[in-house]
């Protein structure tokens, strides 16, 4: 998923502040909750982006809705409302997760396969591919895609390792046809 430069900058600033305060896990958990809210209720972001509602009213809404959130995250949300960048929250959450995982020697990976992977298969894939990208562990999300015909496709950040039958057939077709 492509992220905007702005989202990466906000995520970096939030990460550094949370890290300084020793609140990485708490801010990460709060961000996950915020991401769920925005995904399940797109109206929430629409209200915060509405030009007819004053910035002060939007900030009051954010303050009341996220009163239990970490102050550093609440301040970031207030700034996003001020700068009219609240629509970047999903990209900021994703970038923050990547930064937190990287700091812990981990990385997020998406593994596409024709069927759901077992726990042993996930563990073996995590171990093998973590070494390839210089990480200690991988947090794997399994996506089932029957159109792959067989094999797996692993995406870790910008790196893609594709050993699916469909990609092998496509390469063979290119070699034969030219």
Write structural notes for this entry:
- GO terms for molecular function: proton-transporting ATP synthase activity, rotational mechanism.
- It is found in: Cell membrane; Membrane.
- With 178 residues, this protein is of the alpha+beta class.
- The chain has two domains: 5-101, Peroxidase, domain 1 (Orthogonal Bundle), CATH 1.10.520.20; 105-177, no CATH class.
- Helix content is 60%, strand content 14%.
- The chain has a four-stranded mixed β-sheet, with helices on both faces.
Provide the fold topology:
Blueprint lengths: L4 H16 L3 H17 L1 H8 L5 H11 L5 H12 L6 H15 L2 E8 L5 H14 L4 E8 L7 E5 L2 E4 L2 H13 L1
Parallel strand pairs: 1-2
Antiparallel strand pairs: 1-3, 3-4
GO cellular component, one term: plasma membrane
GO molecular function, one term: proton-transporting ATP synthase activity, rotational mechanism
Family: Belongs to the ATPase delta chain family.
